[in-house]
Amino acid sequence: MGSSQRYDADQPPVDPSTRAVHVRGPELAGLRPLSLPIFQTSSFAFSDSADLADALSRPDGSFVYSRYGNPTIRALEQAVADLEGGTAAVATASGMGAISSVLLSRLRSGDHVVVQSALYGGTVSILRDLAERFGVEVSSFSGDPGELTGAIRPNTRLLYLETIANPTTAVNDLPALAAIGREAGLTVVVDNTFASPMLCRPLEHGAHIVLHSSTKFLGGHSDVIGGVVVFAEDEHYRAAWHQVVDYGASADPFAAWLTARGLQTLPLRQAKQCENARVLAERLQAHPAVSAVRWPGLPSHPDHEVAAKLLSGFGSLMTFDIAAGHEAAVAFLERVRLAALAPSLGGVETVVLQPSSSTHRQLDEAGLRAAGITEGTIRMSVGIEHADDLWADLAQALG
Question: What is each CA distance from 262 to 47, 215, 222, 231, 274, in whole angstroms?
C-alpha cells in the first residue's frame, strides 16, 4: 500500500532530485494545478492605483507587468532558488542576460574584477566591453588561491568563477577561493551552468551569487533560450532585479514554462549524461588519434581530486585534443554522423564543436593558449544516447 504522505511546501524534501520534480505554480481557486500553467499575458489589471504603484516598485510584490514578474516565471525562479539553496532568483531572457545583469548591477566605473583564466568567451567579451567603455579593470588568475590573494587590489569588487570551466573543464577549489573573496569583501559570483545544482551548489561553498544559462542543462532539450540568477542575499537580488527590468533582460513566460518542464527531468538526464561521459572519456583516452582528454572524472585530470570533493558527479562536458591539429579536427567534425556539429550544450543529444573557431573566437592566440585551447581541441557535450552508439560514431570519425 502506498504512503498517504503528501508533499508539504513548508517542509520540502531534502534530496534535490525530488525537489526538481515539484515545480509549484500558484493555486487557482484553492486548487493547485499538477502541471505549471503558462500565464501568457503582458499585463495584469488592478482595481486600486496604490496597489499598482506598489507592484511596480519591488520584485516580491503583486504581478503587474510580465517584464517585472509573472506567475510562470516566478515559479521557475523559486524552483531554481530552492535547488541552489538561495533566498531568491531572477530569470532572464538568456544566459548572457544573466551574466550581464549581474556584472552591471555589481560594478561601477573604476572597479576591479578578478576572473579565472579559463572562462566562457561570452563572459570575456562583456568584461572586455566594460573595460573599454567604463574603465572596469579585469585581472585573471589560474585558479591557485595564492595567486588570487596576490591579484586582489583596494578597488577589487568582484570575483568571478565557473564551477566547471568552459571549455577546459578545470575545477577550482571553490570553497578556498570563495573564502578568500569573502575575506576581502568581494562579491563572489559563480557560473554553475556546466555542473547544475544536481552536481554542485556554490552558495553552500561561500558564493554570493550563482548563475546559469538555463538554455543548457536546466532546460535540457535544445528548445529554449534563458538564464537564471540565484542570490544568497536580498540586497544583491533587488539590485539585479532592477537591472533586469530596466534593461529589458526579463524572461518570457513560455520560455520559463519550457525551462521548468525540463527541470523536472534534470536528475535523470544528468545522471545518464555523466555515465556516458565516463565511458567515452575512458575510450578516447586510449585512442591513438587523441593526444589529451580533459574530463574531471579521469584520474589523469589535474583537478580530479578537487572535483571528487566538490562535485557529486563529474559532468558530461569534456574536451579532447586531436593530435594531428587543426585540419584533423575539422575533418573529425565533418565526419561525425550521430553527434551534431552545433553550438550550445547540455541537451539530450550529443554535440561537438571546435572552441577556437566558435565559443572562444573572441580570444587571440595568446588568450587561447592561456585558456588551454589548441587548434585541435574538440568540445563535446555528451547526451543520453546509448554509449556504444556514440563511441561507434566517434571512432569512425577519428579514423
Answer: 36, 10, 10, 22, 17
